[in-house]
Amino acid sequence: MMHPKYRPDIDGLRAVAVASVLAFHAFPDALPGGFIGVDIFFVISGFLITTIIMQSHAAGDFSYRDFYARRIRRIFPALTLVLLATLGFGWYALLPREFTELGKQAAGGAAFIANFVFWSEAGYFDTAAETKPLLHLWSLGIEEQFYIFWPLLLALAWRRRWPVLRLLWVLAVASFLVNVLTIHPYRTAAFYSPASRFWELMVGGILACMRLKAAGKAPAPAPAPAWRSHLQSCLGVGLIVLGLVMTRSDKAFPGWWALLPTLGAASCIAAGPAGLLNRHVLASRPMVWIGLISYPLYLWHWPLLVYARIVEEGEPAAWIRACLVLASMALAWLTYRFVERFTRARTQVGMLRSLVAGSMAIAVAGLLALGGMPPRNGSDLLRKVTDATVDDNYYAGFEQQKIGAYPVKRVGSGPRTVLLIGDSHILQYAPRALALAGSAPARVATTYFSTYGACPPVPGMVAEGNPGCEKARDEMLALALDPRIDTVVVGACWNCYFTGNFALPFYFREGDAAYLVNNGGEGLGRSLASLEQLLAELVRQKKKVYLLLDNASGPEFEPRRLIEGSRMGRMVALRSTPTAPLPPEQARLNEQLKALARASGAEPIDVMARLCSGGQCLRATPDDAPVYKDREHLRPAYVRQYADYLDGVLLAPQP
User: Fold this and answer.
1) Residue 478 is part of a domain; what is its CATH number?
2) Are residues 353 and 414 in the same domain?
3) What are the residues whose beta carbons fall under 8 Å from the beta carbon of 401, sequence distance 6 or more?
4) How many other CB atoms are found less than 10 A from the CB of residue 236?
5) Using an 8 Å Cβ cutoff, are 577 and 619 in contact?
6) Could you tell me if residue 576 is inside a domain?
7) Could you tell me whether strands 571-573 and 563-565 are parallel, antiparallel, or unpaired per DSSP bridges?
8) Residue 202: closest CA among 58, 71, 50, 53
């Protein structure tokens, strides 16, 4: 197969990409846009692969066998080694449920479908990204899926003599439109889906076809003037720097923002090796060296940083993260020098079979871990505790319906209609409603849930960093006022919003003024008054209104607190630790909300009266199973069986 002439500046561009990602992952505040390095990788990959394929077709020697054999020798050695090391350390340091999740990630990574694995996991209750050791393999999945589709398309276009460049433009524009049209309504899908990411690789492919078309013209075109290469080089680096500075992880990315790194990388490649910054910066020896080890460096750095966070149970000190970056560089060089170069030099069929067999063995090991193979600390009690952390399928068994134009989740079909509105602290009671619909179908009301995570159902309150909240709350309140609704239950994580027990800041907006709620000042008073007015208005509409009060929350209620020991030593689950102290500020807020509900004409549902006694609140059942999923949410298994304080709302009286 034909291969493009080696360009050291492209290795330098790889160095920019991987260094940006490393800086963002290790020191996110120092380079908040560093994650765009992945998009630079996509463009480079699309350019090189398309050049190889099209040159080989032009020479008449393209071979699918050779193409995929080279991909296997390029991708599998370092990936298999990193997966093996990650699984091995995971077996030693992780808890049962964590090791199960790692097994799924490893199997998905070995099968190059990691992007679909993480896409399926994404949601309000998803595990924090910083604790997923193989999360970074989502981008490798995108690339390998592209390598399945792209050679077939180019070969078909070549044989049929289709206008390749025009075809690629159409496909790239279509993929880009999928990206920008889905980034707001389906942000997770836009991030992980190949349909919304392929355009970035296609940009590199289009550039490759344009250069090959120009090079194949007869007579050969005159060399481009030097100033043009210098301008393209400076423009490309400038766009990349602009992306690193302006892009943020909380922006709608990829979307339009992905044009900055994508066009920047394409401009750098188009400048050629003679471009000013290409020749003097990107092609410098330090940059080329980093570029040569960029692939294993990308693979090694993230598991090291994640395991450090897991072992430290929080963000490691800056000096530890700096040491881990250096360690990942050392491991990357060793992998490049003794693994990658060794396997690339051996083109025999036996080596290919060994690499494929190794990858399959890793996938099998991952599936075994997913299927329940215990880690080193794998007792039944530890598994019971860690299982609680992923017990989060609250809406399982519900029907998606609409009341007018508004979507709701529904269960039951009784003559009464009950609407529960709020955030995830209302959502957490869905399993109880489903259980009642199964055990007493004739008595349970037609029950609707309208919820939105981290969104207080209080007119005027807004959450910074939760842009969909206001629209969702307006829908909830419109539903609550609908004459088809008999009973309304308003609930939320009141402790989060009104005692400052939450990471996001919340504001009460009135006109152009915004009052911070978390600090307990004027914003809190205005928010409570707004909540009371909402309840009173619902009562005036002749509805039965309930204010569902909050359960106790805080770090002591997290299932992890029921485990003692060290990740690097021995870990055991505690017995006979059924309660944790009720924070005094939460007890005071509970009394304040009960009084507020009664003043408005609503009826309070006092959750703490059921879960707490004598200043202590339940966190484990008599069989040592955690009551909570995390530090705030009651788990479905507990709610389903014990949350009978809602039964009077959802069930008709016994005949």
Assistant:
1) 3.40.50
2) no
3) 407, 408, 409, 410, 448
4) 26
5) yes
6) no
7) antiparallel
8) 50
In a domain, 440, yes or no: yes
- Give whole-number Cα distances, 363 to 104, 367, 372, in Å: 9, 6, 15
Residue 571 falls within a domain, yes or no? no
Identity of residue 563: I
422 and 348 belong to one structural domain: no
367 and 433 inside one domain? no
With CA atoms as reference, report the closest residue to 460 among 512, 499, 420. Answer: 512
- Give the CA distances from residue 640 to residues 371, 406, 464, 634, in Å, rounded to whole numbers and listed in that order: 25, 27, 33, 10
CA angle 78, 79, 82 (to 5 degrees): 85
Residue with tokens 């330098």: 12
The domain boundary, picked from 315, 340, 375, lies at 375
When pLDDT is cut at 50, 70 and 90, the band that residue 121 belongs to is confident
Per the structure block, which two tokens stand in for 75? Answer: 């991708």
The reported pTM is 0.88
Q: Convert the pLDDT of each residue in 247-267 to its tens digit.
A: 988 788 999 999 999 999 999
Shared-domain flag, residues 111 and 254: yes
Q: How far apart are CA 593 and CA 606, in angstroms?
A: 10
Question: Does position 223 have pLDDT exceeding 70, yes or no?
Answer: no
- CB atoms closer than 10 angstroms to residue 483: 8
Q: Where are the alpha helices (DSSP H) in 522-583?
A: 522-540
| Mean pLDDT of the region 486-492 | 96
List Cα–Cα distances, 83 to 111, 299, 304, 359, 571, in angstroms: 12, 9, 12, 9, 24
**Cα–Cα distance for residue pair 127/350, rounded to 1 Å:** 40
Q: Tell me whether residue 20 is in a domain.
A: yes
Structural domains counted in the chain = 2
User: 323, 342, 375 — which closes off a domain?
Assistant: 375
Torsion angle of C-alpha atoms 352, 354, 357, 363, degrees rounded to 10: -90
507-544 burial, b for 16+ CB within 10 Å, e for fewer?
bbeeeeeebbbbeeeebbebbbebbbebbebbbeeebb
Neighbours of 239 (CB within 10 A): 20
Q: Does residue 302 share a domain with residue 190? A: yes
The answer to whether residues 323 and 404 belong to one domain is no
Question: 96 versus 127: which is more confidently predicted?
Answer: 96
CB within 8 A of 578, min separation 6: which ones? 618, 619, 620, 621, 622
Rounded distance between C-alpha atoms, residue 93 and residue 62, angstroms: 47
Mean pLDDT, residues 143-154: 93
Which segments of 377-496 are extended strands (E)? 399-403, 406-411, 417-422, 446-451, 461-463, 487-491
Report d(CA 69, CA 150) in Å as an integer: 16
- How many angstroms from the chain centroid is the CA of residue 108? 15
The CA-atom distances, in angstroms, between 136 and each of 19, 108, 228, 250 are: 14, 12, 36, 18
Tokens read off for 345: 């030099």
Domain that holds residue 134: 8-375
- Do residue 421 and residue 359 come from a single domain? no
Q: Does residue 332 sit in the same domain as residue 442? A: no
Spell out the alpha helix ranges (H) of 553-631. Answer: 584-600, 607-611
Length of the chain (residues) = 655
C-alpha span between 116 and 193 (Å, rounded): 7
340 band by pLDDT with thresholds 50, 70 and 90: very high
